[in-house]
Amino acid sequence: GKSGYDHYMLKEIHDQPRAIRRCLRGRLRELDGAVEIDELGGLDRPDRVHFVACGTSYHASLYGARLFRERGIPSTAFLASEYDVGKIPIDEGTAVIGVTQSGETADTLAALREANSAGATTVTVSNVVGSSASREADHVLYIRAGPEISVAATKTFASQQVALTLLASAITGACDRDTLEALRSLPDHVQSVLDQSRTHEIAAEYADAEMDAYFFIGRGYAAPVALEGALKLKEISYAHAEGFPAGELKHGPLALVTERTPVFAVVTGDSRAETMLGNINEVSSRGAPVVAVTDSPEPLAADVDHVVPIPETDPRLAPILANVQLQLVAYWIARELGRSIDKPRNLAKSVTVQ
Ligand code: M6R
């Protein structure tokens, strides 16, 4: 059941500390802190990685591809529906990683099948034991988020990000102690975000039919979270929302920015730099209300209307915390608007047609 929450989505957002703990369990060696994933025995370091996924899982893949690239493996995230094996060079040195919560998404399954027949090494990262995608691949990594009922993916996104962090460390043998230490603290950090979040106040202020659109911006590891924040809001509130890497603002979207386009800016880690603050000032000087989700302990040197704080942590993991705040923003805005939160119109939990 909903364990006393009004919606499955809210329950699942609050499940995240437990979901992350389950994902980590038994996978971080106590002695030297190295990552060890039993299921992945025999998986060698690939020459390159292709992620294939849809929707929220694609956003997790963008995040994962960056993790692999940072560890020296050329990696690209593809929308599964756009993955064209015939035209993309692929061989046994290529690991094709299908990221799919349900393990039943038709486009992702089709991409994995093609990758298999082209001779790639395939890996499925899934939440559902025995799902079609987990049977299709050479290797499976389960994210262990527990059942997710709400159509909007929430805890599975966090668990995918954590699982991909583990996978990148396990495959490359690169164990960054600071990140691993921060991973251990992540469930507690998520819990403190949940305990202290005041996003219902932000939602009450901006859930307004007078608004034209909502924008979400971020850089680096925070860019996929900006995309995800927008997807979550549009999916359950039916408001027009767009997310993009902040650097893209000046290349088009800025034309839409007015006092009726609230902008949510994820300002974490390296993205706390000048450039991001410059992007914030670009929108606020056009009158847009700005909400900054940030781990900065210092006041931001930019013109923002609200600061939504998150605990300071490893720069790669901070966006996971920021995302929890954005999930709550979407939830409370949809609730203000009286939407059907767990079952948004026109959408299905699992998309089994191409
Ligand atoms: O089960 P999958 O992870 O393969 O699903 C992919 C998408 O259909 C899914 O993430 C969808 O975008 C969610 N409803 C977003 O909240």
How are the strands ordered across the major sheet? 2-1-3-4-5
Bound molecules: 5-amino-5-deoxy-1-O-phosphono-D-mannitol
Net shape = globular
Helix-strand makeup class: alpha/beta
Catalogue the unreliable spans. Answer: none
For the biggest sheet, the summary is: 5 strands, parallel
Radius of gyration: 19 Å
- The count of strands amounts to 10
- Helix content percent band: 25-40%
What is the end-to-end distance?
A: 31 Å
Question: What amount of the residues lies in strands?
Answer: 5-15%
- The tally of helices reads 11
Topology order in helix (H) and strand (E) letters: HHEHEEHEHEHHHEHEEHEEH
The average pLDDT value, as a whole number, equals 94
Task: Describe the SSE topology.
Blueprint: H1 8-14, H2 16-24, E1 48-53, H3 55-70, E2 75-79, E3 94-100, H4 106-117, E4 121-126, H5 132-136, E5 139-142, H6 155-172, H7 177-196, H8 199-206, E6 214-218, H9 223-237, E7 241-245, E8 263-267, H10 274-284, E9 290-294, E10 306-309, H11 318-336
Parallel strand pairs: 1-2, 1-3, 3-4, 4-5, 6-7, 6-8, 8-9, 9-10
Helix pairs in contact: 2-6, 2-7, 3-6, 3-9, 7-11, 8-11, 9-11
Catalytic activity: D-fructose 6-phosphate + L-glutamine = D-glucosamine 6-phosphate + L-glutamate
GO cellular component, one term: cytoplasm
Active site: 349
